[in-house]
User: Fold this.
Amino acid sequence: MTDKLRVGIIGSGGIAEGAHAPGYKALPDDCELVACCDVRPERAKAFAERFDLAHWYTDYRELLTLPELDAVSICTPPFMHRDATVAALDAGLHVLCEKPMAMNVAEAQDMVAAAGRAGKVLTIGHQQRFSPAAQAVKRAVDAGELGNIYYAKTAALRNRGAPTWGVFHIKELNGGGPLIDIGVHALDVTMWLMGSPRPVAVFGATYMALAHRPGLQNRMGTINIEEYDVEDLAAALVRFDNGATLMLETSWLLQMTERGNAYTQLFGTEGSARLDPFQIVRDVDGVPEDVTPELPPPAPDPPKQPAPSAPAAEDASAGAEAVPAEEAVTWRRQPSVERFVQAALGRAEPLVKPEETLNVQRVMNALYQSAETGQLVEITD
Ligand SMILES: NC(=O)c1ccc[n+]([C@@H]2O[C@H](COP(=O)([O-])OP(=O)(O)OC[C@H]3O[C@@H](n4cnc5c(N)ncnc54)[C@H](O)[C@@H]3O)[C@@H](O)[C@H]2O)c1
Assistant:
């Protein structure tokens, strides 16, 4: 491998176009986006044109045979995550797979095993860990400033926000509803901030209370009620091996006037911390005091580059200034993509470890099982 990572993207839909491709394009010194794939040929072709890619495919197995490839992003719906990830790792490639990691624990375990066999990076697209607030809370937790964290609560709630594109609403293809889509981020960031304790038991409930209601106004388009068979809301109490507990609530559809509500709050013996809004509290002489630090400013956007469809600037070596304004684009930095590239180039540890997201998968599967049986589910695998 050269010092530039050559990357392909499998699945050329919303997240590939909105985050992964721009994230790679924002790192021209470290990586080159060379190929994409989508089962829909018109999508793959348009994506290749938009991002100026040399190759596009409709079968991901063909993309994996491209000799110059070092890494792939997997941006398909969840039912494809395991097969594409294992095939890519077995082909000797590093993998950034979108969340949720997989459809179930067994699939996630296959992915962890494949990464171990291949000795390649496998990481999952949980970008919330990279927010300045999450990073600051993690530093405070790791420095022991909050003491022993024994309780946390997290939520990802929308009042009328069920996605209506793709297969988000079909259990067999997506694995579930808001828990899989947005609750998974809340769980991931909270469990990571708690120090990644091992989940041992879950008591949960799910409801499909509103999606089939005639006349329901959904902000993200009209719900296909014939196909929609996932939950509208999931809630759980999770217990960990260190005795800590976590309350989770997540929903796409709720009878509340706020458009959304997302929070994560950790409580320790010496203090507490919160994301959205960011706050750190410490016990000072027996009184809880607000000791929230300033957050660092966001990283500046990278220099402008020629738009893919524009002719190359005459003197590329002159850098950003050489790109005529009307033919220049700014690709926004994506910290999770950036960290993946650094990890694949051997310059950093991945921030999101697959063993950690396997534990998130364990919690989600136990929650669904608990909701089905009405019983507490112990996690033993
Ligand atoms: N990290 C985040 O915040 C975030 C945000 C949105 C979506 N996602 C995740 O990203 C994934 C994709 O979501 P999306 O919104 O881009 O969905 P999407 O429906 O817009 O795109 C998925 C694409 O995959 C293609 N596809 C399906 N099967 C395929 C196959 N066998 N081979 C190649 N391509 C195939 C589809 O044709 C489609 O173009 C999901 O797992 C989703 O949960 C993550």
Residues 37 and 57 are 4 Å apart (CA to CA).
